[in-house]
UniProtKB/TrEMBL annotation:
The lineage of its organism: Bacteria, Pseudomonadati, Pseudomonadota, Betaproteobacteria, Nitrosomonadales. One of its GO terms (molecular function) is oxygen binding. It comes from the Bacteria. This is Diguanylate cyclase DosC. Residues 24-297 form the EAL domain.
Length: 304
Protein backbone atom coordinates (compact mmCIF):
# COMPACT_ATOMS: atom_id res chain seq x y z
CA UNK A 1 0.00 0.00 0.00
CA UNK A 2 1.34 3.41 -0.98
CA UNK A 3 0.61 6.15 1.56
CA UNK A 4 -0.80 9.21 -0.13
CA UNK A 5 0.70 12.21 1.62
CA UNK A 6 -2.27 14.52 1.36
CA UNK A 7 -6.01 14.93 1.21
CA UNK A 8 -8.56 12.18 1.32
CA UNK A 9 -6.14 9.55 0.10
CA UNK A 10 -4.16 9.84 3.31
CA UNK A 11 -7.33 9.73 5.42
CA UNK A 12 -8.40 6.56 3.71
CA UNK A 13 -4.97 5.07 4.22
CA UNK A 14 -5.12 5.79 7.97
CA UNK A 15 -8.61 4.42 8.24
CA UNK A 16 -7.57 1.29 6.40
CA UNK A 17 -4.78 0.66 8.86
CA UNK A 18 -7.13 1.08 11.81
CA UNK A 19 -9.61 -1.29 10.24
CA UNK A 20 -6.83 -3.71 9.59
CA UNK A 21 -5.62 -3.79 13.19
CA UNK A 22 -9.09 -3.99 14.73
CA UNK A 23 -9.96 -6.68 12.21
CA UNK A 24 -6.80 -8.48 13.24
CA UNK A 25 -7.73 -8.26 16.90
CA UNK A 26 -11.21 -9.62 16.20
CA UNK A 27 -9.69 -12.44 14.19
CA UNK A 28 -7.19 -13.20 16.94
CA UNK A 29 -9.90 -13.35 19.60
CA UNK A 30 -12.15 -15.60 17.57
CA UNK A 31 -9.20 -17.82 16.62
CA UNK A 32 -8.48 -18.22 20.32
CA UNK A 33 -11.98 -19.62 20.76
CA UNK A 34 -12.08 -21.58 17.50
CA UNK A 35 -10.59 -24.65 19.15
CA UNK A 36 -13.07 -24.73 22.07
CA UNK A 37 -15.93 -24.06 19.68
CA UNK A 38 -14.84 -26.91 17.43
CA UNK A 39 -14.58 -24.69 14.35
CA UNK A 40 -11.40 -26.17 12.87
CA UNK A 41 -11.54 -28.81 10.14
CA UNK A 42 -9.06 -30.99 8.30
CA UNK A 43 -9.38 -31.57 4.56
CA UNK A 44 -7.37 -34.31 2.88
CA UNK A 45 -5.63 -34.21 -0.49
CA UNK A 46 -4.39 -37.42 -2.14
CA UNK A 47 -0.79 -37.95 -3.22
CA UNK A 48 -0.68 -40.04 -6.37
CA UNK A 49 2.09 -42.29 -7.69
CA UNK A 50 2.81 -41.01 -11.19
CA UNK A 51 3.72 -44.30 -12.81
CA UNK A 52 0.85 -46.43 -11.43
CA UNK A 53 -1.78 -43.78 -10.75
CA UNK A 54 -2.31 -45.25 -7.28
CA UNK A 55 -3.04 -43.04 -4.28
CA UNK A 56 -0.06 -43.47 -1.96
CA UNK A 57 -0.93 -41.07 0.84
CA UNK A 58 -2.96 -38.09 1.96
CA UNK A 59 -2.03 -34.62 3.19
CA UNK A 60 -4.10 -33.09 5.98
CA UNK A 61 -4.82 -29.41 5.32
CA UNK A 62 -6.32 -27.13 7.94
CA UNK A 63 -9.47 -25.05 7.43
CA UNK A 64 -11.40 -22.78 9.77
CA UNK A 65 -15.16 -23.18 9.52
CA UNK A 66 -15.91 -19.63 10.68
CA UNK A 67 -19.57 -19.16 11.70
CA UNK A 68 -19.85 -15.83 9.83
CA UNK A 69 -17.12 -15.79 7.18
CA UNK A 70 -17.47 -19.38 6.05
CA UNK A 71 -14.53 -21.67 5.31
CA UNK A 72 -11.28 -19.75 5.82
CA UNK A 73 -8.13 -21.13 4.14
CA UNK A 74 -4.97 -21.57 6.24
CA UNK A 75 -3.01 -18.78 4.54
CA UNK A 76 -5.48 -16.35 6.16
CA UNK A 77 -5.03 -17.48 9.75
CA UNK A 78 -2.01 -19.79 10.17
CA UNK A 79 0.47 -16.83 10.10
CA UNK A 80 -1.54 -15.16 12.90
CA UNK A 81 -1.67 -18.45 14.79
CA UNK A 82 2.11 -18.66 14.47
CA UNK A 83 2.69 -15.09 15.72
CA UNK A 84 0.43 -15.55 18.72
CA UNK A 85 1.65 -19.05 19.59
CA UNK A 86 -1.86 -20.45 19.05
CA UNK A 87 -0.35 -22.73 16.42
CA UNK A 88 1.01 -24.89 19.24
CA UNK A 89 -2.39 -26.05 20.59
CA UNK A 90 -3.83 -25.91 17.06
CA UNK A 91 -0.94 -28.04 15.80
CA UNK A 92 -1.63 -30.60 18.48
CA UNK A 93 -5.31 -30.61 17.49
CA UNK A 94 -4.24 -31.22 13.86
CA UNK A 95 -2.05 -34.17 14.89
CA UNK A 96 -4.75 -35.72 17.06
CA UNK A 97 -7.52 -35.19 14.50
CA UNK A 98 -5.39 -36.69 11.70
CA UNK A 99 -4.56 -39.72 13.89
CA UNK A 100 -8.20 -40.23 14.91
CA UNK A 101 -9.12 -40.06 11.22
CA UNK A 102 -6.49 -42.69 10.36
CA UNK A 103 -8.07 -44.95 12.99
CA UNK A 104 -11.58 -44.26 11.70
CA UNK A 105 -10.54 -45.09 8.12
CA UNK A 106 -8.88 -48.30 9.30
CA UNK A 107 -12.21 -49.25 10.88
CA UNK A 108 -14.04 -48.52 7.61
CA UNK A 109 -11.78 -50.87 5.69
CA UNK A 110 -9.99 -48.18 3.70
CA UNK A 111 -6.61 -49.21 2.27
CA UNK A 112 -3.96 -48.13 4.76
CA UNK A 113 -2.63 -44.75 3.60
CA UNK A 114 -0.15 -42.60 5.51
CA UNK A 115 -1.38 -39.11 6.39
CA UNK A 116 0.98 -36.13 6.27
CA UNK A 117 0.63 -33.24 8.69
CA UNK A 118 2.19 -29.78 8.19
CA UNK A 119 4.33 -28.49 11.04
CA UNK A 120 5.18 -24.86 11.69
CA UNK A 121 8.40 -23.27 12.96
CA UNK A 122 6.76 -22.37 16.24
CA UNK A 123 6.17 -26.03 17.07
CA UNK A 124 9.91 -26.61 16.74
CA UNK A 125 10.66 -24.06 19.46
CA UNK A 126 7.76 -24.74 21.73
CA UNK A 127 8.52 -23.43 25.23
CA UNK A 128 8.35 -26.01 28.00
CA UNK A 129 5.47 -26.12 30.48
CA UNK A 130 6.05 -22.81 32.33
CA UNK A 131 5.52 -20.70 29.20
CA UNK A 132 7.45 -17.86 30.86
CA UNK A 133 9.77 -17.46 27.92
CA UNK A 134 7.00 -15.84 25.85
CA UNK A 135 8.34 -12.97 23.77
CA UNK A 136 12.00 -13.61 24.47
CA UNK A 137 14.37 -15.46 22.20
CA UNK A 138 14.67 -19.04 23.29
CA UNK A 139 17.89 -20.92 23.76
CA UNK A 140 17.83 -24.61 22.87
CA UNK A 141 17.61 -25.52 26.56
CA UNK A 142 14.81 -23.10 27.42
CA UNK A 143 12.85 -24.19 24.37
CA UNK A 144 12.50 -27.74 25.70
CA UNK A 145 13.69 -29.18 22.41
CA UNK A 146 11.83 -32.45 22.78
CA UNK A 147 8.35 -31.02 23.44
CA UNK A 148 7.33 -31.61 19.84
CA UNK A 149 8.66 -35.17 19.93
CA UNK A 150 6.82 -35.82 23.21
CA UNK A 151 3.59 -34.34 21.88
CA UNK A 152 3.70 -36.45 18.72
CA UNK A 153 4.54 -39.63 20.65
CA UNK A 154 1.77 -38.95 23.16
CA UNK A 155 -0.81 -38.39 20.41
CA UNK A 156 0.29 -41.56 18.59
CA UNK A 157 0.07 -43.49 21.86
CA UNK A 158 -3.35 -42.11 22.82
CA UNK A 159 -4.86 -42.76 19.41
CA UNK A 160 -3.11 -46.09 18.83
CA UNK A 161 -1.69 -45.07 15.45
CA UNK A 162 1.52 -46.63 14.15
CA UNK A 163 4.27 -44.03 13.52
CA UNK A 164 4.70 -45.36 9.98
CA UNK A 165 1.20 -44.01 9.21
CA UNK A 166 2.17 -40.44 10.09
CA UNK A 167 4.25 -38.25 7.79
CA UNK A 168 5.52 -34.80 8.67
CA UNK A 169 5.89 -31.88 6.25
CA UNK A 170 8.31 -29.11 7.15
CA UNK A 171 9.65 -26.18 5.15
CA UNK A 172 13.27 -25.25 4.59
CA UNK A 173 12.75 -22.08 6.62
CA UNK A 174 11.94 -24.18 9.70
CA UNK A 175 15.32 -25.87 9.31
CA UNK A 176 17.12 -22.60 8.77
CA UNK A 177 15.71 -20.97 11.90
CA UNK A 178 17.47 -23.45 14.13
CA UNK A 179 19.22 -26.22 12.32
CA UNK A 180 20.65 -28.07 15.30
CA UNK A 181 17.36 -28.18 17.22
CA UNK A 182 15.45 -29.17 14.09
CA UNK A 183 18.04 -31.84 13.32
CA UNK A 184 17.68 -33.37 16.80
CA UNK A 185 13.90 -33.39 16.57
CA UNK A 186 13.87 -34.90 13.07
CA UNK A 187 16.37 -37.59 14.06
CA UNK A 188 14.15 -38.57 16.98
CA UNK A 189 10.96 -38.63 14.89
CA UNK A 190 12.59 -40.51 12.04
CA UNK A 191 14.00 -43.08 14.46
CA UNK A 192 10.39 -43.75 15.58
CA UNK A 193 9.46 -44.55 11.98
CA UNK A 194 7.88 -41.32 10.75
CA UNK A 195 8.79 -40.08 7.27
CA UNK A 196 9.88 -36.45 6.84
CA UNK A 197 8.98 -34.36 3.78
CA UNK A 198 10.51 -31.04 2.77
CA UNK A 199 7.57 -28.86 1.69
CA UNK A 200 7.67 -25.95 -0.81
CA UNK A 201 11.12 -27.07 -1.91
CA UNK A 202 13.01 -24.46 -3.90
CA UNK A 203 11.48 -21.39 -2.24
CA UNK A 204 13.65 -21.34 0.87
CA UNK A 205 16.97 -19.93 -0.38
CA UNK A 206 18.67 -22.39 1.89
CA UNK A 207 21.84 -24.39 1.69
CA UNK A 208 21.34 -27.82 0.20
CA UNK A 209 23.74 -29.48 2.62
CA UNK A 210 20.92 -30.32 5.03
CA UNK A 211 19.55 -32.77 2.47
CA UNK A 212 22.37 -35.19 3.09
CA UNK A 213 22.65 -34.58 6.84
CA UNK A 214 19.01 -34.90 7.89
CA UNK A 215 16.74 -37.97 7.76
CA UNK A 216 14.62 -36.67 4.90
CA UNK A 217 12.54 -39.06 2.85
CA UNK A 218 10.95 -36.90 0.17
CA UNK A 219 11.06 -33.39 -1.22
CA UNK A 220 7.95 -31.65 -2.51
CA UNK A 221 8.62 -29.30 -5.42
CA UNK A 222 6.79 -26.06 -4.79
CA UNK A 223 3.79 -25.44 -6.98
CA UNK A 224 5.21 -22.10 -8.15
CA UNK A 225 7.71 -24.09 -10.27
CA UNK A 226 5.17 -26.64 -11.45
CA UNK A 227 2.55 -24.20 -12.76
CA UNK A 228 4.50 -23.22 -15.89
CA UNK A 229 6.65 -26.30 -16.56
CA UNK A 230 5.03 -26.88 -19.93
CA UNK A 231 5.40 -23.26 -21.11
CA UNK A 232 8.43 -21.81 -19.31
CA UNK A 233 11.80 -23.34 -20.21
CA UNK A 234 13.42 -22.10 -17.01
CA UNK A 235 10.81 -23.69 -14.75
CA UNK A 236 11.06 -26.89 -16.79
CA UNK A 237 14.84 -26.89 -16.29
CA UNK A 238 14.55 -26.21 -12.55
CA UNK A 239 12.03 -28.99 -12.01
CA UNK A 240 14.05 -31.48 -14.07
CA UNK A 241 17.19 -30.54 -12.11
CA UNK A 242 15.45 -30.90 -8.73
CA UNK A 243 14.19 -34.38 -9.70
CA UNK A 244 17.64 -35.48 -10.87
CA UNK A 245 19.38 -34.07 -7.78
CA UNK A 246 16.87 -35.63 -5.39
CA UNK A 247 17.19 -39.03 -7.01
CA UNK A 248 20.97 -38.95 -6.90
CA UNK A 249 20.65 -38.24 -3.15
CA UNK A 250 18.22 -41.20 -2.90
CA UNK A 251 15.30 -38.92 -2.04
CA UNK A 252 11.82 -39.25 -3.48
CA UNK A 253 10.10 -36.33 -5.21
CA UNK A 254 6.49 -35.16 -5.12
CA UNK A 255 5.32 -32.33 -7.38
CA UNK A 256 2.74 -29.99 -5.84
CA UNK A 257 0.02 -28.09 -7.67
CA UNK A 258 -0.33 -30.36 -10.72
CA UNK A 259 -3.41 -29.15 -12.59
CA UNK A 260 -3.15 -30.47 -16.15
CA UNK A 261 -2.50 -33.63 -18.13
CA UNK A 262 0.49 -31.89 -19.79
CA UNK A 263 2.12 -31.19 -16.42
CA UNK A 264 1.41 -34.76 -15.34
CA UNK A 265 3.04 -36.14 -18.52
CA UNK A 266 6.07 -33.87 -18.19
CA UNK A 267 6.66 -35.03 -14.62
CA UNK A 268 6.15 -38.70 -15.47
CA UNK A 269 8.65 -38.40 -18.32
CA UNK A 270 11.23 -36.78 -16.03
CA UNK A 271 10.89 -39.63 -13.52
CA UNK A 272 9.15 -37.66 -10.76
CA UNK A 273 7.76 -40.14 -8.22
CA UNK A 274 4.42 -38.67 -7.22
CA UNK A 275 2.10 -35.71 -7.64
CA UNK A 276 -0.49 -33.78 -5.77
CA UNK A 277 -2.89 -31.34 -7.31
CA UNK A 278 -6.30 -30.46 -8.64
CA UNK A 279 -5.61 -32.64 -11.71
CA UNK A 280 -6.34 -35.61 -9.48
CA UNK A 281 -8.28 -34.01 -6.64
CA UNK A 282 -8.69 -30.92 -4.52
CA UNK A 283 -8.38 -31.32 -0.75
CA UNK A 284 -11.63 -32.94 0.41
CA UNK A 285 -13.47 -33.45 3.71
CA UNK A 286 -12.66 -36.85 5.23
CA UNK A 287 -15.99 -38.42 4.31
CA UNK A 288 -15.38 -37.80 0.58
CA UNK A 289 -12.04 -39.63 0.49
CA UNK A 290 -13.27 -43.23 0.59
CA UNK A 291 -15.85 -42.64 -2.22
CA UNK A 292 -13.09 -40.97 -4.28
CA UNK A 293 -10.76 -43.93 -3.83
CA UNK A 294 -13.56 -46.36 -4.72
CA UNK A 295 -14.64 -44.47 -7.84
CA UNK A 296 -11.12 -44.06 -9.23
CA UNK A 297 -10.31 -47.71 -8.52
CA UNK A 298 -13.43 -48.88 -10.31
CA UNK A 299 -13.55 -46.44 -13.22
CA UNK A 300 -9.94 -46.33 -14.37
CA UNK A 301 -7.78 -49.39 -14.36
CA UNK A 302 -4.98 -47.44 -15.98
CA UNK A 303 -5.11 -43.94 -17.41
CA UNK A 304 -4.36 -43.15 -21.04
P1 LIG B 1 1.21 -26.67 1.60
O1 LIG B 1 1.47 -27.58 2.73
O2 LIG B 1 2.30 -26.45 0.61
O3 LIG B 1 -0.11 -27.23 0.91
C1 LIG B 1 -0.36 -27.18 -0.47
C2 LIG B 1 -1.37 -26.11 -0.81
O4 LIG B 1 -1.58 -26.12 -2.23
C3 LIG B 1 -2.74 -26.34 -0.18
O5 LIG B 1 -3.31 -25.07 0.07
C4 LIG B 1 -3.50 -27.01 -1.33
O6 LIG B 1 -4.90 -26.85 -1.25
C5 LIG B 1 -2.95 -26.27 -2.50
N1 LIG B 1 -3.06 -27.02 -3.75
C6 LIG B 1 -3.08 -28.36 -3.90
N2 LIG B 1 -3.18 -28.69 -5.20
C7 LIG B 1 -3.22 -27.54 -5.89
C8 LIG B 1 -3.33 -27.23 -7.29
O7 LIG B 1 -3.39 -28.09 -8.16
N3 LIG B 1 -3.34 -25.90 -7.62
C9 LIG B 1 -3.26 -24.92 -6.68
N4 LIG B 1 -3.29 -23.65 -7.11
N5 LIG B 1 -3.17 -25.17 -5.36
C10 LIG B 1 -3.14 -26.47 -4.98
P2 LIG B 1 -4.03 -24.76 1.46
O8 LIG B 1 -4.82 -25.95 1.90
O9 LIG B 1 -4.72 -23.46 1.30
O10 LIG B 1 -2.81 -24.63 2.46
C11 LIG B 1 -1.87 -23.59 2.33
C12 LIG B 1 -0.72 -23.74 3.28
O11 LIG B 1 -1.15 -23.61 4.64
C13 LIG B 1 -0.07 -25.12 3.24
O12 LIG B 1 0.80 -25.21 2.13
C14 LIG B 1 0.65 -25.14 4.56
O13 LIG B 1 1.86 -24.43 4.46
C15 LIG B 1 -0.29 -24.35 5.46
N6 LIG B 1 -1.08 -25.31 6.27
C16 LIG B 1 -2.16 -26.04 5.93
N7 LIG B 1 -2.56 -26.83 6.95
C17 LIG B 1 -1.70 -26.59 7.97
C18 LIG B 1 -1.57 -27.11 9.31
O14 LIG B 1 -2.32 -27.99 9.76
N8 LIG B 1 -0.55 -26.60 10.06
C19 LIG B 1 0.31 -25.66 9.58
N9 LIG B 1 1.29 -25.21 10.39
N10 LIG B 1 0.23 -25.16 8.34
C20 LIG B 1 -0.76 -25.62 7.54
MG1 LIG C 1 2.30 -29.36 2.93
MG1 LIG D 1 3.80 -26.94 -0.28
MG1 LIG E 1 3.00 -23.75 1.55
Amino acid sequence: YQAKEQGLGYQFYRLDLENLSSERLTLENSLRRALERDELRLYYQPKVDLASGAVIGLEALLRWAHPVRGMIPPDQFVPLAEETGLIVPIGEWVLRTACLQIKAWQGEGMPLLPVAVNLSARQFRQPSASGETEGRPLSDEAAGVHDLVETIERVLGETGVDPSCLELEITESILMQNLSTAANILQALSAKGMRIFIDDFGTGYSSLSYLKRLPIDTIKIDKSFVGDITTDQDDAAIVAAIIAMAHSLRLKVVAEGVETQEQFDFLLERGCDAMQGYFYSKPLPAEEILPLLRSTRNSSSGRD
